[in-house]
Amino acid sequence: MSFEGAPIEPDVWHEYEEGGGFILDETLAFRRSLTRRGYDYWRDLRGDAAGPRKSDLDPASIVPLLPYVVLIDIIRDANGARDYRVRLMGTVAAANHGDGTGMLVSRHLSGKPLYRIRGAIDHVARNGRPVRLASVSGYENREWLHGEGFYAPLLSEAGGLDHVFIVADIWSSAAPVNAAPDEG
């Protein structure tokens, strides 16, 4: 069940051999207003806690973000090894990655997308802190797509880190990954 690998070093650009790459940014230096709004919503719900509870989420208060939201369940086997299941996938996220609702992330994605997305989810699950993922798409024939995602912990009612809240924005490479917010 487990797909745990070595942690991906944060705050370093990781290049793919054939071009493109990604960064896990712990400073949360958002370049896109959509991911910034996701962070602001999460931060406001969190207050002084490590993260908001999943039950604190109110879809009616984030209607414009919903197409970009993904909720991930953290599942553990008897030995404590982690895997991840897609609980909910917004329509824009599903259009870009395929609808993985109900699937394990390791079965839904493959190759470069699995490596970087799984790495961001692992980072949150291991550290209990949010991270920004900025990337050049690794899908075949889609290297022109760029993305920025906000990945953050959601807690159970008992206070355990059981879910990851994601808001992901994808845009044309006419606007570079580190362009000004929403440029292009």
UniProtKB/TrEMBL annotation:
Q: Which domain of life is it from?
A: Bacteria
Question: InterPro entries given for it?
Answer: DUF1457 (IPR009922)
Record Pfam families: PAS_5
Record-given protein name: PAS domain-containing protein
